[in-house]
Design a protein that fits this description.
Order of helices and strands: HEEEEEEEEEEEE
Strand content: 25-35%
Largest sheet: 5 strands, antiparallel
Oligomer: single chain
Number of strands: 12
């Protein structure tokens, strides 16, 4: 009888221990905390096209050093290097070593086209003697023209003009020196070119002030950089 009673006492103790263990698990607590996030994001400047090096005046001279004698008289000269290039908007001169991270086109890059143009009736006129037109001559056709030769130093993604593309005469008063498409434009796109000029004072002129020097004013050429985000 005593042994049976002891067994009955053990069972409630075991059950009580199990209940206590379960109660301890369900009474756990959680601690909360918060933090904020942030960052400093550096940005590169906006890219832009630039054009440098267009001379204000180019003097054409006779290479032989002789004087006009009523025969064809060739004159010629050249400008300095003209640069069209991509750089940050505020840049004032062509970077010596442009880098990929110098600027960004952000939403869209732009194509570029450099044109050379003049007025509708190009020619040379005397600036030395008032109302003396005896040495004036017109650039009125492909045989009487200002030959404008563009010699580019550009990567293959730039177009180079064919001979005669930029020659100036009546009905042909503009041309394209160089161009690059929008798709080919990068943050380091750049092209340099030198322009040489040549013309001929035609034979048969009889200068009113023979023996004097005639300063001649030729056509004014305008170099324009045209950019576009279209296409």
């Amino acid at each position: 009888m005593i042994k049976k009673l002891a067994a009955l006492i053990v069972v409630p103790v075991a059950v009580l221990g199990l209940v206590v263990s379960l109660t301890g698990l369900t009474s756990a607590t959680a601690l909360d905390g918060t933090n904020t996030t942030g960052s400093t994001v550096g940005t590169v400047p906006q890219c832009a096209w630039h054009l440098d090096g267009v001379l204000g005046a180019v003097s054409l001279t006779h290479s032989g050093g002789g004087l006009y004698k009523g025969l064809d008289y060739a004159i010629g000269g050249s400008g300095t290097s003209v640069d069209s290039y991509v750089a940050p908007t505020s840049t004032t001169s062509k970077p010596a070593s442009p880098g990929d991270d110098d600027c960004s086109w952000y939403t869209s890059q732009a194509s570029a086209e450099v044109t050379i143009s003049t007025d509708a009736s190009p020619g040379f006129t005397s600036a030395s003697f008032t109302s003396d037109t005896s040495m004036d001559f017109a650039l009125n056709n492909s045989s009487h023209k200002l030959t404008v030769t563009v010699d580019p130093t550009c990567p293959v993604d730039w177009t180079s003009p064919a001979p005669g593309t930029n020659d100036i005469y009546t009905s042909h008063v503009s041309g394209i020196a160089t161009s690059i498409t929008k798709a080919a434009t990068t943050t380091k796109s750049a092209c340099s070119y030198v322009v040489t000029f040549a013309a001929t004072v035609p034979s048969g002129k009889s200068p009113t002030h023979a023996g004097e020097n005639y300063a001649m004013t030729g056509p004014t050429l305008t170099t324009t950089l045209v950019t576009s985000t279209l296409g």
